[in-house]
Predict the structure.
Amino acid sequence: MPTRTVVVGSASGLHARPAALFVAAAAKQPVPVTIRTGEKKAVPARSMLSVLSLGAKKGTEVTLEADGDGAQDAVDTLAALLERDLDAEDG
Amino acid sequence: MADLLTSDAIRLQERAGSRDEAIRRCGEVLVSVGAVSEDYVDAMLAREQSVSTYIGEGVAIPHGTLNSKENVRRDALAVLRFPDGVDWDGNDVRVCVAIAAAGDGHIDILASLAEVLMDPDQAQRLRTATDPADVLELLETS
């Protein structure tokens, strides 16, 4: 099952704007993707509340996982998004 | 966590005719508890234009843009309850958790908030709270 572990790159962590953008991107993927921190339970990446409940800060390692057709692309796309500083693109 | 949210920043009988009016009220409370300067309120409105801070279960988390951190005097939260609801881009918002943050200490309390909202009973308790002590208890248990 495609899995990627990345470090959150957004200055304000995975909440607020970065979380909103991440959740929206996850909802667009053809397969459900889960996200987890450490050994905690994996939660749906397309659920804002679930993503907020992770409490992921800048520098926190998170693991994405998906299964099915297009899973690798979905995981890669979302991993790349997480690694970027989405706050810096605030304008 | 206790110093981030204090009972004087919890207002449970608010009323607002629009999303922006609700955000202004949130900003005013953050100003009144000495957490932010008045410029922060405009930054909160700007942020909302850019991406909605509605997170689900009748709750929004208005906050300023990253550039407005210079207007934050201390990290703090405010909880405003709108018993009549506020039309938030088509969502019915009952509770705003307004955030003033220069650091990332508020992320843990937001995680607690999210966990509360994922539990239907606790979410209902938060939306109908009439005592600041209940709000403090809900957000500090997880």
